Amino acid sequence: MRIAVEHLTWGVPGKTIVQDVSLQVSDGETVGLIGPNGSGKSSLLRCIAGLRTLTAGAVRYDGVDIAAWPARERARKLAFVEQTADTDSDLRVADVVMLGRTAHRSRWRGPDAADHEIVAEALGRLDLGGLADRPWKQLSGGERQRTHLARALAQRTSGLLLDEPTNHLDVRHQLDLMELAGRTPQTVVVALHDLALAARYCDRLVLMHRGTVVADGPAEEVLTAPLLREVFDVDAEIGRDSLGHLAVGYR
């Protein structure tokens, strides 16, 4: 899936939150949205997902304005994982993941063997196979996050939007998740606070500040000391760790 964001503006009465943002995401590319709190990352993701009515501009999937897609059709093309998600129902983990198959079934058909196979695969990819029958309310924050990620994988979409997906995850599952995001054939746009993870696993970084894009390119071009000083108000040193990955240190 190709995603095109064209002069996108969105806000609430009296305040513009995302201002004239344009960016292109190529088919199969993993793009990281970075920036401080309040920079507009989460709002931009919701706009791309079609969850906000734009003030101006457009979002297109493979050249088609998403305003032309009914919600059910969008759910077949793009999965969105929120930063925090909850449910009042005491569903099992497998039931939550099965919700990802809803858009692919008629209202009158229950899950079939193919649906169950897809759910089992998604559970396995997020290391949740042993928790399939665990009630939702008994899960830790990290387990809930991985469950919602598994639900998104079960949607079998060509695009994936992730809003701070490593929140609540331990280090091992953060790395596993970002490895998965980096190697999936899906087009991925992921909002991240962790600059090291973003640099290591994303093909390209988009740096946001006060609702606008201030830099867009490879990690080496975006994570520079002057830009980090301007956007995050920190003095940073950019180098390489012992494994050769881009590293950011702060003074």
TrEMBL record:
SUPFAM superfamilies: P-loop containing nucleoside triphosphate hydrolases. The keyword ATP-binding applies. GO terms for molecular function: ATP binding; ATP hydrolysis activity. Residues 3-235 form the ABC transporter domain. Pfam families: ABC_tran. Keywords: ATP-binding, Nucleotide-binding, Transport. It comes from the Bacteria. This is Histidinol phosphatase. It comes from Lentzea aerocolonigenes.
